[in-house]
Each structure stands twice: as C-alpha cells, then as structure tokens.
Amino acid sequence: MVMNFIQGLIKYEFLQNALITSVIVGLISGVIGSFIILRGMSLMGDAISHAVLPGVAVSYMLGANYIIGASIFGLLAATLIGFVEQKSPLKSDTSIGIVFSSFFALGIVLISRAQSSTDLNHILFGNVLAVRQSDIIMTAVVAVSVLIFILLFYKELVVSSFDPTMAAAYGLNVKLIHYGLMFALTLVAVTSLQTIGTVLVVALLITPAATGYLLTNKLTHMIIISSIIGVVSSVLGLFFSYTFNYPSGATIVLTAACFFLLAFLFSPIKGLLFRNKGGVMNEEV
Amino acid sequence: MMNQHVMEVDDVSTSTSMQLEPIQVNNLSVSYQGKPAIQHINLTVQPGAITGIIGPNGAGKSTLLKGIMELVKRDSGQVTMGEQDIKSLRKNIAYVEQRSAIDLTFPITVEEVVLLGTYPKLGLFRRPRKKEWQKVAESLEKVQMTEFSKRQIGELSGGQLQRVFIARALAQDADIIFLDEPFVGIDMTSEKVIIDLLKELKNMGKLIMIVHHDLHKVVEYFDELIILNRELVASGPISQSFTTENMRKAYGSTMGDIVIKGVSD
C-alpha cells in the first residue's frame, strides 16, 4: 500500500502536486487555526471558508484568478457579519449563521449556472486530481504571505487574542488586527479548496489546533504542534485517499480527527484520562 | 510634547518623583444601547495619589474608567491631562480589567503575561529582548511571584493571578494605572502585596485609579475618592468626600444605618 503510494508519487505529477499543496495547506492551517480557536472564532472560520464560494464562482465566470474573487467575498462576509452583529440585537453566532449560509447558497447557485455539477462537487469536497503546477505556486505565495503576517504581528496577535481590552487600552487597533486575521483566514481557506473542499476546510483549521491546545500550555508549542499535525494529517489523508479512492478532503479530516481523539483521551496535561494532574483549569474566578 | 517629557523622566529613573498633570474629566457621559450608564461627570484626578471609585452595583464605576480611556463610545465629554487628550497618552496607561474577563485556559505562562506589559513601548515589529525580559523578572519579584513564572495562568489562585496582572502593569512602566476591582476574591497576602506596591508607586508620583466595592478599606487604601451613582455624588480628598451624607446619597436606603469605619459626619 505504502509502496504503491510512493510509486504513484514518483509516477504521477498530479499526486506530487497534491502532496505539496496539502503539506503547505496543513502547515499554514495549523498556524492560523491556533489563533482562530484561541480567539473563540471557530465558527467564524467555518463561515469564511463557506463564504468564499460565490467569489470562486464569479472568478470562474470572469476568467479571473479565483484567489482574488474569493478574498473579496471572504472579507465581505466578515464585514457583513460584524455589521449585522453591531446593528441588531442578534448574537454573533446567529449573524454568522445567516451571513455564511446565504453566501454559500449564492455560491451554489452561481456555480450551478456556470459549470456542470461535477465541478461543484469538486469545490465542495476537494479534488486532488485538479491541482495544477500554477496552483502550487499560488498556494506557496499565500502561505509565505500569511506566515510573514503572523511573524510580523505575532506580539499584537497574542495580546489582542489574550486580552483585547488591554490591547485596546494601550492604543492597539484591535479591529484592524481582527480583519487582518480574517483576510489571512480567507486566503488559507481558498488555498485549501482543492485538496479539502469548502465544506471541510474548517476542520483542518481547528482540529489540529485544538489537538495542539490539548497537548501543551505554551502558545509557541501549540502552534508548532498543530502545524505538524496539520501536515501529517494531510499526507496521511492523501495516502488513504489515493489508496482507497475516497475524496481527499474527507480522509484528511478524518485523520486529523483521529489525532484529536488521541490527544483528547491521552494528553498528559489535559487528557480525559489524566485529569486532575495539574493541567486542569482553576475554577476560582 | 508632554508625552516626550513624561517618557524622558521615565527613562532616566523611575524612582525620582515625576511631574504629572492631573486628569481632567469634562462632562463625560456614556450609554449602552440608549440607556445612560454615567451622565455629565466632571472631575479631576490627582497624580501622586490613589483614587478610589465607589458606588452601588450598576453605578457605572467600570464604565467611568472605560469612558475615560474611550474604550466605550462616549455620548459627550473630553478627558485631558494637561494640554493633551488622554488618547495620545494611551501607551502610558496600564489597565487591569476585572479578572473574570480573562480566559484562564489560554496557553500562556505567568512570565509571558507580564511580558505583554512591555509591548506598548516596544511598538510594532520590535521583539522583546533581554531588557524586556529583565523588566519581567523585576516586576515578578516585586509581586513575589518569581517562583511561579513558568506556570500556566490557570494554575494560579485568584490572588496570585491578580499579582501577575499588577506585575504586568509594573512592566509597562506606565504613569497612569487603572485597576478594576483588583481586590475581589483574593487572599490577604496578595492584597497586602498589591496595596503596598501601589502606595510605593503613588509616592513616585504616578496617577492611580481603582474601582472598589468594599467600603471598609476605603480610608486605609485611598487618598482621594470618587463616589458615583450614574451621576457624580462627590469627589475629592477622603476627608471631604467620604461622609455619611454622600454615602447615603450614593447608596440610598440600602445602606441603612450601617456604620462604616472612618466615614466622616
């Protein structure tokens, strides 16, 4: 099985392409996902990754690069969510739910109009066969940009995630940081489209990050662990996808879920079986 | 200009007394969704003193601090320090929110929390270096939390956590310190460590404001008092503001005939 996969890798360019993209996407998702879950924005991650769909469709129709269209719609969704939340008494999960499902529905309509249903299927659930050389370059450019963003603004991301009030009190523009992160999230979501598919992007964002969170009490370690788990899940998932002919998005996500389950049960500091051994949170407020 | 001046004094030595101007609050009003929280507040906050903010639940004590810093939208009002709007002095404000607002499960250690205090002056794109970590170590020592520096913050008691946030304020080297209910649910040792430190900072000339709910320690802890119940009831030196009449005005009949230690007639 493994030999077969390796032979496939040597033989088929599409598999090489798929492997390279999934490794990059797994890595970057782990990094950005760590901030997403610490800021309590998992639902937002799900929303953005769905909301890019109409952008992909419009880009397709216009023959433009889908990264641009998707980014516009991703940011538009993030802004609209914030707007609905501020201008109505609705809670944030409701405004997120309304906005992203509407965007997603619009995307489905647009894609059905523009393309055959098989293409829609590929966008929704990923299609490793579709990864082209030019996509790899695009993914790499996005990954490097997002990493640079995180490195440059690491301090600001940490302080605004942990204590946004303190950050605002000393004059940090926490809104700008928020939208910067939303933009990065959109870019990552778009690059994950081909290997994971829109529907399951959120899993690669939050599952490895949540696994890292359960395994350590240090943010830098959490980011490193979640990137590694993101990469390993992507590679293993691709292997299962190739070997058993399942959609790659599903196998990658299930692999990540297995890692999460292991950490959930056996994490030395926060695992279910080792609770009350120091890692448990203080109940006192 | 003024900022520059403050910074210079700060850089030379924090132990020499500095010359801060008082904070002037003019006609400050804040409302939440149309409901007024505080209205038409006019007052002066003195440097080199610890000013307590007291008042019944829902009196707008925390809102006053947030309104001063403009962390919430103001309906009206300005806050200045000397010639400058308070907004331009933000890096010089250390603010410690109520502990209940903090995510105790965040993967961050005690020393990393204190390090956050060095960020305002570091600014964008500069990484904390030896100097900043040294500041962290000194600040942790001052609150007697050095031995806990590698712990995740969820492992601390309420009092220990509060000391960590005070250390963060120390590491920030700010001249203006705002604390929201720092003494709620903390042990005696921590309370003493914190108040002793605050008194030390006050003697260095810093401006300190504390939202407080326990009326018993008012005379012991504060030099100046702001008594609030949506509107300003009184402000000024304890001897003038902490009177039975003012307390009755602020707390109404809920106070009953409880005699408060140190309250003047």
Describe the structure.
- The complex is a heterodimer of chains A (285) and B (265).
- Chain A is mostly helical and 285 residues long.
- Chain A has a single domain (2-274), classed as ABC transporter involved in vitamin B12 uptake, BtuC.
- Helix content of chain A is 80%, strand content 0%.
- Chain A contains 14 helices and no strands.
- In chain A, helix 3 (42-51) packs antiparallel against helix 12, helix 12 (201-215) runs parallel beside helix 14 and helix 13 packs across helix 14 (248-266).
- With 265 residues, chain B is an alpha/beta fold.
- Chain B has a single domain (2-236), classed as Rossmann fold (3-Layer(aba) Sandwich), CATH 3.40.50.300.
- Chain B is 34% helix and 23% strand.
- Chain B has 10 helices and 10 strands.
- Chain B has helices spanning 2-12, 61-69, 110-116, 119-122, 130-142, 158-172, 188-203, 218-221, 238-241, 244-251, and strands spanning 23-32, 35-45, 49-54, 76-81, 84-85, 93-96, 176-180, 207-211, 224-229, 231-237.
- In chain B, the strands form 2 sheets. Chain B has a 6-stranded mixed beta sheet with strand order 6-7-8-3-9-10, with helices on both faces. Chain B has a 4-stranded antiparallel beta sheet with strand order 2-1-4-5, covered by helices on one side.
- In chain B, helix 6 (158-172) packs parallel to helix 7 (188-203).
- The radius of gyration of chain B is 18 Å and the shape is globular.
- The interface between A and B is medium-sized, with 30 and 40 residues.
- Chain A: Its main location: membrane.
- Chain A: The chain crosses the membrane at residues 12-38, 58-84, 96-116, 136-154, 166-190, 196-215, 222-242, 248-267.
- Chain A: Belongs to the ABC-3 integral membrane protein family.
